[in-house]
Design brief:
67% helix; MetI-like fold; 0% strand; 12 helices
Length: 304
């Protein structure tokens, strides 16, 4: 007689019926990764983003020029072997500053998104699972926060804490988690009445375990897709703030700050603005392609 654990062992070649065939089992993560890799745009976006992130992380350490080093003798020079992207109006190496600015922009994008992810998952999960009056009160608070334009939060925070990286991250996070909370809440409301959640409740699982182990795990697909769209939004927001002059202050420089500095010399030295804008476009397009690829890969209905 077979033991219980032996019912789930794969059949040997001798036990298989003639003419039958078997399919190797795949985990959901492996299946999603294989479908993601087949999407050429998504894979290209992932490779480009990894290259940009790696160069931005390592580049400033190996560059012979500091990001804030000035040299009046080489102001506004074009591209050369010594300065790949040329120099700006203060004689600073633009390539080094673009790498440094990319690092700051990616730091703001990923850090603010991670904070919004944690807050949004916890808030939306609790609201959706508790339901009733608790859900109504929590979502009305969300509506109040969302009713105030995000730009007002950012300007007020920068007036209080100054124009720095932490103020930008805090300003993005004040109401950036609202959309994530709404997505998670909608998923929890549709999943908590499903058979697996009811079965977990019947066998005595705690409400905490049902929420974190069963419900939130099954809504990771839409959450991951939303995260990939929140990162470029945060990067673009920071670039916009810096471009209009209320973002990160000197001598620090983000990609938006570099574009803002080159605005005055646009008609004379247009390439000084092209380089930071080009990097912003590459990062945002790469993240959008990754998001579209993940949306297809993590959607069970898209599986063929």
């Amino acid at each position: 007689m077979l033991k219980p654990e032996e019912f789930f062992l794969p059949l040997s070649e001798a036990d298989r019926e003639p003419g039958s065939f078997t399919v190797n089992a795949k985990s959901f993560a492996r299946d999603a990764w294989e479908r993601f890799v087949r999407n050429r745009l998504a894979l290209t976006g992932l490779i480009v983003l990894m290259i940009i992130s790696l160069v931005a992380l390592i580049g400033p350490f190996v560059s012979p020029y500091p990001y804030d080093g000035m040299n009046a003798a080489i102001r506004n020079q074009g591209s050369s072997a010594a300065h790949w992207f040329g120099t700006d109006q203060f004689g600073r190496d633009i390539f080094t500053r673009v790498l440094y600015g990319t690092r700051i922009s990616l730091l703001i994008g990923f850090t603010s998104t991670a904070i919004n992810l944690v807050i949004g998952i916890l808030y939306g999960g609790i609201a959706g699972y508790c339901g009733g009056r608790t859900d109504m009160i929590m979502m009305r608070i969300v509506d109040i926060i969302y009713a105030v334009p995000a730009m007002i939060y950012m300007i007020l925070l920068m007036l209080i804490f100054g124009s720095n990286v932490y103020s930008v991250i805090l300003g993005i996070c004040v109401n950036g988690w609202v959309n994530m909370a709404r997505v998670v809440r909608a998923q929890i409301l549709s999943l908590k009445e499903r058979e697996f959640a009811v079965a977990a409740f019947v066998i005595g699982a705690s409400r905490k375990r049902i929420l974190f182990r069963h419900l939130l795990t099954n809504c990771l697909g839409p959450v991951i897709v939303t995260v990939t769209l929140m990162i470029p939004q945060a990067i673009f927001t920071e670039a916009f703030l810096s471009f209009i002059g209320i973002g990160i202050s000197a001598p620090q420089a983000s990609l938006g700050t570099l574009a803002q500095d080159a605005k005055m010399l646009l008609t004379v030295y247009p390439m000084q603005m092209v380089w930071p804008i080009l990097v912003i476009c590459l990062v945002i397009f790469s993240l959008n392609f990754i998001g579209e690829g993940l949306e297809t890969a993590l959607n069970p209905r898209g599986k063929r």
